[in-house]
Amino acid sequence: MWAWAPRNGGRGVALDTTQRNLLWAVRDARNDKAWVDFYSLYAPMVSGFVRRLGLPDADAEDATQEIMLVAQDALQKGKYKPEKGRFRAWLFGVARRQAMTAHRARRRPSRAQMVSRDSSLNPLSQLEDPYAEAERLIWEQEWRYALLGEALKHLHGEVPEKEYQAFMRYAVQREPVEQVASALGLSTSSVYVYKSRVLEALRTWLKPYQED
What we know:
- The protein has nine helices and no strands.
- It has about 210 residues and is mostly helical.
């Protein structure tokens, strides 16, 4: 059976296909790289989603593995039908059902439920509704986070290290430009230039997935 864990030690993988092509590639159980890429992209999204629905870490890890195994089976056996909708929407339904199952197994309210049992903004207050807007917003946020995280890991191995560090410290960690320049031995103008270069590379990497 496929072991659901990246084999690259946590480093970014070069996802050089669009989302659609990646889903097609993972139908082949012998395509090991496709499965590594698939896991690297989708598992963080699933894990972040079920945690935000209130599952503690241990349960969230178990739920993530179960959801990924369901996805593996559905893709390889043709249970997921592309003509019926996007894979991400299908996986959303699987993840929500698994979260419901995990909460019921625990037989106690989740943290989110205890904070606000009656709030319409509480994601878990509408778990029986497959189109609950709050959960969908969380799901889409986690998709964007997963894409951005994978893109940054990929670019770390593609752009010069000093350019990458300047981008991360200035654009992501929001350090003052003067502080970044001093730490990296750059001029402030170079920090701005490096930020623009990496940002453009980031947009290029993300574009196929955004189009899909």
